[in-house]
Amino acid sequence: MAESQGEYVGANPWLIAILVSVATFMEVLDTTIANVALRYIAGGLAVSGDEASWVVTTYLVANSIVLCASGWIAQMFGRKNFFLVCIALFTVSSLLCGFAWNLQSLLVFRIMQGLAGGGMTPVAQSILAAAFPPAKRGQGFALYGIAVVVAPVVGPTLGGWLSDNLSWHWCFLINVPVGVITLALIYLIIPSSEKQRQERARLWAKGLNFDYVGFALVATFLGALEVVLDRGQVDDWFGSGFIVTFAIISATALILFVPWELSRERPLIDIKMLTGRQFGTCFVIMLATGALLIATTQILPQLLQERFGYTATLAGLVISPGGLVTMVMMVIVGRLGSIQPRWLIALGACIAGGAMIDLMRMSPDADYWFFAWSRIYLGIGLPLIFIPITTASYDGIAPDKTDQASALINLARNFGGSIGVSISQTVLAQREQFHQSRLSEHIGAWNPVLHDTLAQIQGYLGTQNATGSKSGSAMAIVGQMVQNQAALLAYLDVFVALGLIAAVMIPLALSLRSVDRSAKPAMGH
Length: 525
Fold this sequence. Notes:
Shape: globular
Structural class: mainly alpha
Number of strands: 0
Oligomer: single chain
Order of helices and strands: HHHHHHHHHHHHHHHHHHHHH
Distance between the termini: 14 Å
Low-confidence stretches: 519-525
């Protein structure tokens, strides 16, 4: 094969990249689009907000579980075939979610949607790696990166607008026309690979040889861990018997999984890949990148809606300028092929950390553009991390391991997002209590500033013809001021925690080895 070509000879790699990116965008979008619609879902299905939150949890759990087996399935049945099945199932389950008649049916359909989406994302990445030669992979991943990075940003905006103006059902139904069109085009345009067909024949001759025990263990580990991360803060972490039980299940499955996989001739997950310097470091950096991307995408709209009175639609629009910058940066970074990934990742981590530091200037009168600029800074930094880390993760990976590498890198992004959200919500809850306790210490009869403040408020209430006890109303207003200030200080602590995550990526990035861009394209991915 000529060095300038990828595996799919005769097909335009850029057209392939567009199609798989659209499919990936649709799947990643569903990780965040339902978040802002939960209160609408709760009201529409007559359930509590806590029960409605399982709509997000079940999707993430199913998504994570199938990621582990996606590499094996793609090898045995073909990437294109598996990708088409995933898109078809995702489209059908999206339609069913839109017509769900109660919470139980919606959760079942979300599990189906998560299983389909979990298989779709890593296979899309493998198809891209095969479609482009190594020298041009960065440009292909740039287009794919737009889908992965921009979709979580668009999700809250789109979900908020659909829920505010139409209904929560459209958060799922919007996938249907996109899925049908993408399914038809991928079937017609992406060719079948003769080398893949021969490889599948060879594997089938050896028998299925699926690691059922390994899959059961890793599915249990990841599923239970996802529940712990997603529900931990809601259920008071280890103060809850429910969380403790799932934590024990997850830890036990992991302890059994590692020696089992190390003893297999054809393991479900090659744990040795994670111990390699290059891939293992890329895995950790992608964990951190996912934490930054998903946590900031969730925490900022939450801050704006709870403390600044923004609607769901307006809160989503705050992060839209950052999404536009991200799209532009993806194109730019994709063309920086002459610069080694470790330098770009380190620079991107510095910018992302700077965006978190900038948010620490937040005050109660911060306006729209203060928050929008923070997302713009992040939109500059994250593409400098995402594309190079995706490229670097394939460096030195054997051709028969690329599907598994894709699954692990996507698993890192997903779980990184769950970890980031969990850290953010835990820091927010605990530090808000801490700050409220410290601020309340200054509210006492001995404090002359309190007396002056109460007098001013009482005077204001008098001019407004307020009814009831002016002293009681004034004290209630002071209490609300303390609570709001404590919440804002807690959000600042969250930004500090996320900034530290960005700082950790810098030395990790610099430890990566140089990528050999002159290597010949891998065959038979």
